[in-house]
Design goal:
alpha/beta, Immunoglobulin-like, TIM Barrel, 8-stranded parallel barrel, 7-stranded antiparallel β-sheet, 19 strands
Length: 507
């Protein structure tokens, strides 16, 4: 055996020995309750209630996207908005979206010298349902779709006459015809006035009465500009300034959220947009937003592998969040952050091949991201989206598009929203098992522990011996009636079903 090989073996032995010593120190000194007997191999949770890590400022919520399934004529309309009202969430994001021009755009034809073409027939009904269902709570409104005639496309946009027919070409064009952006700003000022001031005066001086006087505390400017119209950040910033400047004159108290990126790995957008020097004087940088969807790694990937793909991609996303936060804190530290589209997409557009356990897995991933965003001080974590259906991203839905009953994704959000939010104290907690995710909280309702099983297998965990369980709330597929099961087990051993999300209320 050569001297080099002997040296390599000795070095490897020393490294492994160091690891064993470190593990011994952690489990016997820092985690004494995790030092289990030979008869009990279940993972153990260790909590130090006196060790406060931070105070949460994160609100869990969701987004609602306009589509035919949420319309008054839909068979699930009533159940959908009842579920939204029952949730009682703040910062609900509402987005009328470009594939349905008649439901998203208030002025589909450019004004002429003697006529304007404002029409709120479709826009009003869902907006009314949103505002009624969220009454008493804050909303983030985002009429993200700009009229096609404002863009240089050299043809008349042939959108469908049927308001419920999807039309994916509506966001064509990459250059505004009015580079001063007065046309763009005027459109949004009138749209905002329609919903908040009882009406507006059009381009020809005619007043249009609405009788709407909604309070809109947050307005988000456009949606995913890196995809929709492929807008460079310099152009987007000018559009943001024009729209915000116009609405601010109407409603000085409204706050604005900008950027709304689909792909957050573009630091140049945040570097430019968050630099106050790149904005007009007086334009606020109240908040930024961006999105994340966990996806499978390849077509036909089985559920057994989704669990690894989703959480691996979630961890990669969270690293990007940390980087974006470093930019924000450096350039505009008072700006808030909302990650307002969090979900999973597996590309099953017909909805026929989505496994039942998928919804629990997707909910578990959202719960994990919520914990990690809370630790980073993110202001809003929004699940996407209330209703999807075949051909319209059924895999992101929080409702069953057939009968309007909430699925596990909805119930996971409700579980989080009902138990956690701003003001909670996060305390030190750890589990000696990588397959169980935990976080302990001190809330106004007492001590609580959030447990997540990210794996498609049953796991057990032992709570600290001094913990006295009052109630366990679970989203684990066991309660078909309302989605959240309540139990009062004896002892401190907890069983987590596959993709289980639990909240342990302690006495």
């Amino acid at each position: 055996m050569s001297h080099m090989i002997k040296h390599f073996i000795l070095q490897s032995y020393l490294i492994q020995s160091s690891k064993r010593i470190l593990l011994f120190i952690i489990t016997t000194i820092f985690l004494p309750e995790a030092n289990l007997s030979a008869q009990d191999t279940s993972p153990a949770l260790v909590v130090n209630w006196d060790s406060i890590i931070m105070v949460s400022k994160t609100t869990p919520t969701l987004q609602v996207v306009e589509n035919p399934a949420v319309r008054p004529s839909s068979s699930i309309h009533a159940n959908t908005f009842k579920a939204l009202k029952d949730l009682g969430a703040d910062y609900v994001r509402y987005v009328p979206w470009f594939p349905y021009p008649k439901m998203a755009v208030a002025e589909l034809r450019a004004p002429t010298k003697d006529s304007t073409f404002w029409d709120f027939t479709y826009l009003d009904s869902t907006m009314e349902a949103i505002m009624n269902a969220t009454s008493g709570h804050s909303v983030v409104i985002n009429f993200s779709t700009t009229p096609s005639w404002m863009w240089k496309i050299n043809y008349d946009m042939p959108y469908p006459k049927d308001a419920y027919e999807a039309f994916w070409a509506y966001n064509d064009g990459s250059e505004l015809r009015d580079t001063t952006m007065k046309e763009l700003a005027g459109y949004y000022a009138r749209l905002f006035s329609w919903y908040t001031k009882g009406g507006f005066t059009d381009e020809l001086g005619k007043f249009h009465k609405s009788d709407h006087f909604y309070k809109i505390p947050y307005w988000e400017v456009l949606n995913e500009p890196d995809l929709e119209h492929n807008i460079p950040v310099e152009m987007y910033t000018k559009m943001y300034d024009a729209i915000v400047g116009a609405i601010k004159k109407i409603s000085p108290e409204t706050k604005f959220i900008g950027i709304s990126l689909a792909f957050n790995a573009r630091p140049e957008y945040f570097e430019y947009f968050l630099n106050p020097k790149n904005h007009k004087p007086g334009i606020p940088l109240d908040g930024i937003s961006y999105h994340f969807y966990g996806t499978r790694s390849y077509a036909d990937q089985p559920l057994q592998e989704y669990q690894y793909a989703f959480f691996d991609k979630a961890n990669a996303f969270l690293e990007k969040v940390r980087f974006i936060e470093s930019i924000r804190k450096r350039l505009s530290p008072t700006t808030t952050t909302t990650v307002n589209e969090i979900g999973t997409i597996i590309g099953e557009m017909d909805g026929n091949n989505i496994p039942d356990d998928y919804w629990n897995l997707s909910g578990a991933m959202f719960a994990y991201i919520f914990i990690e965003l809370t630790k980073m001080g993110i202001d809003v974590a929004g699940e996407s989206q209330l209703v999807g259906y075949p051909t319209q991203f059924p895999d992101v839905s929080m409702m069953n598009w057939k009968d309007g009953k909430p699925n596990a994704r909805y119930w996971t959000l409700k579980l989080l929203k009902d138990n956690f939010g701003p003001g909670n104290k996060l305390v030190y907690s750890a589990v000696n098992n990588a397959d169980i995710i935990s976080q302990a909280f001190i809330t106004s309702a007492g001590k609580k522990i959030l447990l997540i099983n990210p794996r498609n297998k049953e796991s057990k965990i032992n709570l600290p011996s001094e913990a006295i369980i009052e109630t366990i709330y679970s989203v684990d597929g066991s309660n078909e009636e309302n989605g959240i099961a309540q139990t009062k087990p004896a002892g401190n051993s907890i069983t987590l079903k596959p993709f289980d999300v639990k909240v342990i209320q302690l006495k």
